[in-house]
Design a protein that fits this description.
This protein is mainly alpha-helical. It has two domains: 163 residues, no CATH class; 191 residues, Orthogonal Bundle (Penicillin binding protein transpeptidase fold). Helix content is 63%, strand content 0%. The protein contains 17 helices and no strands. The termini are far apart.
Length: 407
């Protein structure tokens, strides 16, 4: 009888030391087929891509994690105190450092069936990123960040091995499914972060924003205000156009969600643009509102928020906005409609101007006084909702006349 060939001999399941052999073996003692080879190569590619994405997020100089945290904090009610905001910010920072490294620990452990490769990969990548931050001016190395990254890698490795062993032993597949879901969420978050980074890098610099404001003012013979924004006009504008202005990082997550829903429903102008996005539209995209233009405005808004203070952005906006009837800038509008400076406008007058920026021609108080009064009433209601006025004051102001100096 011919001796069996090596190709048909069953592979031992234990090592000479008696420990189980965890080396990956082809099922049934057969050679690996083309489909398995393609799957293994695809797995390696995904692993490499995830490592590159995480490395990019860790080394980018403009703190994507801080943008996300500020976007979440923007969802808090205005009444939330500073202590609550600080505690939530610290907690989100810690959770983000952990979740960022869950896929890093998960993928190597999933492929090898061992926890150690996943933990080592997490430690190595986190250590390299902390060392690299010594040469990145805007980053500061942190031992706590390193520890949280390592914890995330360990959690990912534990999830991967638990899911693999549970499925191999014939037990419930729930751990494996949960592990895959966690890894998928992590990968999607990383890809989203890298996409945001690419968007910010793709749009032009906003260092010339003040120069652009001056050029537009000169083109329209507008008067530039160098002082801070007029208090009542600023309050009315923000109450109506961007109530979370001082909390968000240039893009409001709730406004973005509202715009996405409106776009899906086919509405041309679903709203949701922040003051920074509207300023970017006026200064850099010539007022265009296509999908590509909107994406560019998001990147520009993030850059504007990082480059200038909220007070500077608001001043540039009010110096650039069109208030109808040929009036560009709040100074010209206040003088043209009411024959007084913007700093001395009453609440009804400030509310009227703030309501014009959405549709200056449609709400023109000279040609469409009824629509202008209705829009002003809406702005006054928003001022009451945000606490600048009482409900009784808003109602009384709504009943007053427009008080135009012309028309």
């Amino acid at each position: 009888m011919a001796a069996p060939s090596d190709a048909t001999l069953p592979l031992p399941s234990t090592l000479p030391s008696g420990r189980p052999d965890r080396r990956r073996q082809p099922s049934g003692g057969q050679r690996r087929g083309p489909r398995q080879t393609v799957r293994r190569r695809r797995g390696r590619l995904v692993t490499v891509l995830v490592f590159l994405v995480v490395a990019a997020v860790l080394l980018l100089p403009f703190h994507l994690d801080h943008l996300v945290i500020r976007a979440v904090l923007a969802l808090l009610p205005p009444s939330a105190d500073a202590g609550t905001r600080s505690a939530l910010s610290s907690g989100l920072q810690a959770v983000g450092n952990v979740l960022l490294f869950v896929p890093i620990g998960f993928l190597p452990a999933r492929r090898t069936g061992r926890r150690l490769p996943g933990v080592v990969a997490g430690l190595a990548l986190s250590g390299l990123s902390e060392l690299a931050q010594f040469v990145i001016p805007t980053r500061v190395p942190s031992l706590s960040d390193f520890a949280l990254n390592a914890l995330g890698a360990l959690i990912g490795a534990l999830l991967a091995v638990r899911g693999t062993r549970g499925a191999t032993a014939g037990r419930s597949r729930l751990p494996g499914i949960l592990a895959r879901c966690v890894a998928l969420v992590g990968v999607l978050a990383l890809v989203g972060a890298l996409g945001t980074a690419g968007l910010v890098l793709a749009v032009p610099s906003v260092a010339d924003a003040p120069d652009r404001v001056r050029v537009l003012a000169a083109a329209h013979s507008a008067t530039l205000r160098t002082a801070s924004a007029p208090t009542r006009v600023a309050a009315a504008l923000l109450a109506t156009e961007d109530a979370r202005y001082y909390a968000h990082p240039g893009v409001d997550p709730l406004g973005a969600a509202r715009w996405i829903v409106g776009t899906v429903q086919g509405r041309q102008d679903a709203g949701g643009a922040t003051i920074e996005q509207q300023l970017a539209k006026m200064l850099y995209t010539n007022g265009h509102q296509g999908t590509i233009d909107r994406m560019e405005q998001v990147g520009l808004a993030l850059k504007l928020d990082r480059t200038y203070s909220k007070a500077q952005i608001l001043r540039m906006y009010l110096n650039t906005a069109y208030f109808g009837h040929g009036y560009y800038g709040v100074a010209a509008a206040a003088e043209g409609y009411f024959s007084r400076s913007a700093d001395h406008l009453t609440w009804p007058q400030a509310a009227l101007l703030a309501g014009l920026v959405q549709a200056p021609t449609a709400y023109d108080p000279v040609t469409h006084p009824g629509l202008a009064a209705s829009r002003r009433a809406h702005v006054l209601d928003r001022l009451a909702a945000t606490g600048s006025l009482t409900a009784a004051q808003a109602a009384a102001f709504s009943r007053s006349g427009l008080g135009l100096a012309r028309g």
